[in-house]
Specification:
This protein is of the alpha/beta class. It is about 25% helix and about 25% strand. It is built from 11 helices and 15 strands. A 6-stranded mixed β-sheet has the order 5-10-12-13-14-11. A 5-stranded mixed β-sheet has the order 1-4-3-2-15, sandwiched between helices. The longest helix is centred in the last third of the chain and has 12 residues, at about 335-345.
Length: about 375
Amino acid sequence: MLIQEVINGIEELAPLPYAEDFDNVGLLVGDKNNEASGVLVCLDTLEEVIDEAIEKNCNLIVSFHPIIFSGLKKITGKNYVERVVHKAIKNDIAIYAIHTALDNSFVGVNAKICEVLGLKNKQVLIPQKHTIKKLLTFVPTKEANKVREALFDAGGGSIGNYDHCSFNVEGKGSFKGNENSSPIVGEKGKTHYEEETQIGITFPKHAEAKILKALFNNHPYEEVAFEITTLENSNQHIGIGMIGELETPQNPADFLKFVKEHMQTECIRHSKLIDKKIKKVAVLGGSGAFGISSAIASGADIYITGDVKYHDFYKAENKMIIADIGHYETEQFTKSLLVEYLTKKFTNFAVVLSVCNTNPVKYL
């Protein structure tokens, strides 16, 4: 199996177009056309992780965080990033990073936190904008069904719990081909009128290449008339953070103890406890202070995230509790999520969970 085939499987779970603009995701080191001997899954690609991959005969590391975040001008080994890249190249090990593409997946990082905490009725906390596109095309009516079905098969026309969604308008199109044209219907040099169907479908932005390929491969005309626009509608299944509910409300102190145990954290920094039982819980893996206002607006009783600064705790304003359980701690179960997914996706292939604890923060 080629490394590219493994990458294709990963990107079905978390398409890269949904990664944040500031991020550096995808294949960072290595040749995608090499045969994959095994996959090692980790949170951070450190030197000890490269050593583990060598020991376990894995020439592809799937890392949550990207080891290369800003540009590298030299690879001389003067810091840990350069040493990792150098050792990976020297040992022909590919490194793939998924990061915010998985953060924004409905079944990604935050869904895993919800699972660990037993939260139900999950919803995206901060839906990502501009993820839905719309295609309009004009097809001879007798060919409309063929083209429409091809677009559906390519991922078009799916909205929430529905698929095969389209809007169709019957009309009459006109065209006149020049001397270099080869019209399927009509004659070049003469204006032709054809009964046509305008087909309109929406599709997720990551599927655009497949949608256009299906359109061009199935449309009968020499010149295909179409337009694509980006919609303002929010996609409720793509975005960062999540909101869920506890089956049984808990008082704040008991719930924080529950979180500490289940999220396996040694320390929870939190704002003032409010005199209200915890029912609605917002979560955001990693550095999530930017999501505080969204969590409050969602009606959450508590917001669980990491890397909250001193003054950010004031933003709770007794409307909810802010709980900082640690950056690593909010993301640590992501490794298991990826291993479970890849093991099911590639049943006859070695997918290994890294045993390295790469948390740089220690507690006394």
